[in-house]
Amino acid sequence: MDSWNPSVRVRRTSRGTRKKHSSEAGGVSHDNARLSECFTVIGNHLAQHDELSLVAIGLSAHIQSLPTGAPVDIKSLAARFPEGTVRIARALRELEAHGYLRRTRERTESGRIVTRTVSCNRPGGRRRTPEPEPEPEPEPEPEPDCDYDPGPDPGWADEPDAGHDEAAGRPVPSPEPQPTPEPPAPEPRTRQRPGPRRRALPDVPQPFSLPPELLLAAAEILARLARKDHRLVLSRTDAEHLAPGVVAWLERDASPDAVVHALSTGLPYPLHRPAALLAHRLTANLPPPPPFRPVDAPRLPLQNCDRCDRAFRGAEPGTCPGCHHKETHGQLES
After folding, report:
1. What CA–CA distance (Å, rounded) separates 256 from 307?
2. Domain of life here (predicted)?
3. Half-sphere exposure of 184 (CA within 13 A, CB side)
4. What averages of pLDDT result for each successive group of 10 residues across the chain (334 residues)?
5. Maximum distance among all alpha carbons in the chain?
6. E strand or H helix at 101, and its extent?
7. End-to-end alpha-carbon separation of the chain, Å?
8. Whole-angstrom Cα distance, residue 307 to residue 290?
9. In sequence order, what E strands does 169-220 have?
10. According to the model, what pLDDT value does residue 297 have?
11. DSSP code for 305
12. Which of 17, 92, 152, 323 is most deeply packed, by most CB within 10 A?
């Protein structure tokens, strides 16, 4: 029974093992209408691609239906469809890997880098440029009759012929014209953008004089501002501009602590231009000159009284105003 008998009737397969018809399996049926406008031709190599995802196939069909110049970047497509930027970026990479998209980066005349996207409805099927037709060969000139000899011309008989070899008696081929080299293409010039212009600081009050000791004290006051608030860190140029205004405050008997308090209290937030704010406060809050003494008058040195040994300001040593008053009234009473 283990031998094979070719005369045995072949057993019929059951009805359930055979491949069912599309009508029995519930397959798709088409109800197509002929389109004469607003349609896009898409090949089955894209619609039935074996390796592309469904998102990539639908995205390629959408891109092919767009007019030239329409934006197809990730943000524009994410705003158009419910898929997120991650799925759209993955689908674009799939299309680019299979040749349905070509993306290149180019630099414009203004120096900006843009991405050029080319959609291909058939990968590898680029447009062919027509080959130029070959130029027709020039017709040969008819040879002169050998029996006719015009004889030498006295006008050019002594001049050598550039196209004839007198020694060999045969024509010399004229040198071929060398092609002129094309000038090199000019390199694209990158336009350099000018840097931001620095706005000038407001003017500060000017002192009557600028002694070195007051300038040093003004520099110390400006350094204290930076230690009190890190937003008041000044550059060297700003400090040189603000130093005369601080000296003007010191000339008006303002103490360093008072200057620091007036410049660093109640700062706005955010602080964009600290040097401009300090220059405005030095001008707007400038204290008045001290009473009973002109600003330009020099301060008298300190002297010790000869009688009471008290300190007073005077041009020359002697007695203080109190002792001088007592002496004057004592002489009048005596």
Report:
1. 35
2. Bacteria
3. 3
4. 60 52 67 83 87 89 87 87 90 89 85 85 64 58 53 49 50 64 67 65 86 89 89 89 91 89 87 89 88 64 85 84 80 51
5. 174
6. strand 101-107
7. 171
8. 30
9. 170-171
10. 61
11. B
12. 92
- Cβ–Cβ < 8 Å for 56, 95: yes
The amino acid at 247? V
CA 306/CA 316 separation, integer angstroms: 12
CB-count burial class (<10 Å; 0-12, 13-18, 19+) for 263: buried
Q: Tell me how far apart the alpha carbons of residues 65 and 40 are, in angstroms, rounded to a whole number.
A: 6
* Whole-number pLDDT of residue 169: 53
Q: What's the CA gap between 166 and 171, in Å, rounded?
A: 9
Q: What are the residues facing 103 on neighbouring strands?
A: 117
Distance CA 75, CA 223 (A): 50
Place of tokens 């231009």: 273
Read off the DSSP letter of residue 211: -
What is the C-alpha radius of gyration for the chain, rounded to an integer number of angstroms? 51
Within 8 A by CB and 6+ apart from 56, the residues are 90, 91, 92, 94, 95
pLDDT at residue 157 in the model: 45
